[in-house]
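A quick aside before the break. I want you to see a complete sequence-to-structure record at least once, exactly as it would be stored in a machine-readable document. Don't worry about memorizing anything.
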Amino acid sequence: MHDKDEVEGRVTLGVVARQAGVSPSTVSKVLNGHSDVSSETRVRVERLLDAHGYRRRTRRAPRAPLVELVFHELDSVWAVELIRGVENVARQNGATVALTGSGTRHAPASDWIEGVLRRRPLGVVLVLSALPEEAKSRLRLRDIPFAIVDPAGDPDPDVPSVGSANWAGGLAATRHLIERGHRRVAIITGPEDMMCSLARLDGYRSAMTMAGLVPDPRLIRFGDFHVRGGFEHARELLAGPDRPTAIFAGSDLQALGVLEAARTRGLSVPEDLSVVGYDDVPLAQWSSPALTTVHQPLRHMAEEAARMLFRPAGPGGAAQRIELATHLVVRRSTAPVGGG
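That is the input. The structure line, written in tokens, reads:
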């Protein structure tokens, strides 16, 4: 017998070996994660195993009592809220959380999958917008569940994911400003290649259109969700004589940059400029003035994603998508146009 799990899938492994043009021992090496198999052969074998629906069922190596949480960047203030959410659920299930920084906001680095297969966690939560097909296949082959806390808003349909109502958040933020008499409302949303940025922008445009206002293209900016981006865009927006009276920033960090840009231009918030942020991170209530913002339930989103790791798949194995509500939190950075 070539593999300690082969009793469960002897026919499948034989078929896979023949179709892949390799020996059964090579298939066993792939199943057991041995490194002495070429990348090309490993990918070919794993794709065939996945196509045959092969799953390891017996004598598996013990799982580490870990939930792996993967970020593309760990220096964001909202990362703390996500970590706390995953930790809450991991603790309830007797596990701890291991943090990994990898890749870009779109996907983990190509070498990440090798490390996670060695670590064999109970499951993986990714704060990314997508997972490559090869990574999904290899995680499923090893029965390692995964879920995405989705900042981009456009997950693959076969990936369990948790997001929030970005369009509704953009609508609420902009409507709040319009109801206070603002007509020249600017927006600094996030990166143009992220669906959440576009959804918040669509919410802004919808609120303007419903109020009979035509959005000025010069007042629409794509930022980077960081303080510096908010500052630089706001400096430009506030430089001209026909400046906006209100700015909706697509993140609280960008809103903090807007507050600083207003100060350097000699403008008072909210007397001369109203500012709305997005996320409602703890820092928002301590800004000067306290920031009106859209509450995105970051900790709850992370908790729901972590719970997906510990619950069975949906009917027919369908991936679950959860979208949580957002709501506006009114503080002191907004006021009626021309007033405090």
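Two observations worth writing down. The longest strand covers residues 66-71. The chain has three domains: 6-51, 66-164+299-322, 166-297. We'll return to this after the break.
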